[in-house]
Amino acid sequence: MKIGIDKMAFASTDQYIELTELAEKRGVDPNKYTIGIGQDRQAVVPPTQDIVTLGAQAAQKLLTPENVRGLSTIIVATESGIDNSKASAIYVKHLLGLDDYVRTIELKEACYSGTAAIQFARGLVALNPQESVLVIAADIARYGLNTSGEVTQGAGAVAMLISANPHVLAIEATSVSYSRDVMDFWRPLYATEALVDGKYSTNVYIDFFKNTLTRYQQRTGRQLADFAGIVFHLPFTKMGKKALEAVLQDRTDDVANRLREQLTASQVYCRQVGNLYTGSLYLGLMSLLQNGQIKPGDRLGLFSYGSGAEGEFYSGIVQSDFAKNLSDVDHDLAERHQVSVPEYERLFNSQLGMQAADIQFDTQADNAPFVLAGQKNHQRIYQRR
Ligand code: CAA
């Protein structure tokens, strides 16, 4: 039985900054950001948006009266949880008006947990093939103003329906997971911004990619030539290039050049939005499917990485109706508007964060279908428009 991704949808905020403008304000050569890091724009998050509102917005785009009937479970995978106890999936389910007879849970392991959610969902569907699982990978990547990680921030959610007989990607049986206790990126309970050893994290990422790919190749006997493309977790687009070149080295044959071309196609949306943490690999998959030379029957490799650290390499076969089962990311990105760097800084400092006080946000300027209206008696107040 084929099990995998049946539908995919993306949501982010409706505003962004140009990274050339950020570079100018930070006194950095813009080429460092656009070429050295490989990012052009970055999503800006108003205080009225968080992982619940972004996740609900993405999920709403793929749910239909037919497919909600088979839904058994909602898994929200996130690094940016909004409560130390209660699962954000419960808020998402409520905002979407879904049946109460649905399991709701949250998963965490930095940028990796979206992949864990998909693998767990595969198991659930294998046990009950008539049921489906909604996986939402949603995050707000925050490093802080004027930090070296600032240029690698971003925000958004990718929602995926995992089912039998999927329309986008049938996941293959072999996957290789690899984990080690590593302090490359973490966020203590009292912190709203990540702590990171940036250079070290890029080295660990490459190390984990090589380890999982090698073991995958040993187990399956497959070579790089067997992949139409490899999709990477993209904290910034240059990271995918670093990892791919670490295995291609100085190869210039057709296979190597094809993988390089498809990598470029997978980076298109990340360049415009930034790091989605758990969702980045899957926005990369949407980007490759919408911008690359991919056809039904192609095998894609997927490399997932979450600091701390956990990596996984797995593969899937592209299905015939894939193009009709992806939300229109180009349209959403074209609808966004630019804000200035001072406005981004003001919004960055206006987040609810760790505040305990009652607060009411002005939601007038936010046109999203779901908003965070504030906090009262330590409870977040969400609104559906
Ligand atoms: N023109 C062109 N390129 C330039 C340039 C210029 N004027 N100036 C610098 N560059 C290049 C540098 O040569 C460098 O390229 P290489 O990496 O290919 O050598 C690149 O721009 C970046 O320059 P620096 O290394 O000097 O940049 P930095 O010290 O400011 O830090 C960073 C970069 C480490 C990525 C930092 O942004 C960071 O810490 N980001 C967050 C951590 C992160 O994303 N890690 C990724 C792996 S961990 C992960 O994947 C999980 C996750 O999502 C967090």
Automatic annotation (TrEMBL):
Keyword Transferase: yes
Active site: E79 (proton donor/acceptor), C111 (acyl-thioester intermediate), H233 (proton donor/acceptor)
Keywords: Transferase
GO biological process, one term: acetyl-CoA metabolic process
Keyword Transferase set for record: yes
UniProt xrefs under CDD domains: init_cond_enzymes (cd00827)
PANTHER family: 3-HYDROXY-3-METHYLGLUTARYL COENZYME A SYNTHASE (PTHR43323), HYDROXYMETHYLGLUTARYL-COA SYNTHASE (PTHR43323:SF2)
Family (UniProt): Belongs to the thiolase-like superfamily. HMG-CoA synthase family.
Organism: Limosilactobacillus pontis
GO molecular function: hydroxymethylglutaryl-CoA synthase activity
Residues in Hydroxymethylglutaryl-coenzyme A synthase C-terminal domain copies: 175-249, 259-349
Organism placement in taxonomy: Bacteria, Bacillati, Bacillota, Bacilli, Lactobacillales
Binding annotation for (3S)-3-hydroxy-3-methylglutaryl-CoA: D29, Y143, K242, N275
Ranges for domain Hydroxymethylglutaryl-coenzyme A synthase N-terminal: 3-165
Protein name: Hydroxymethylglutaryl-CoA synthase
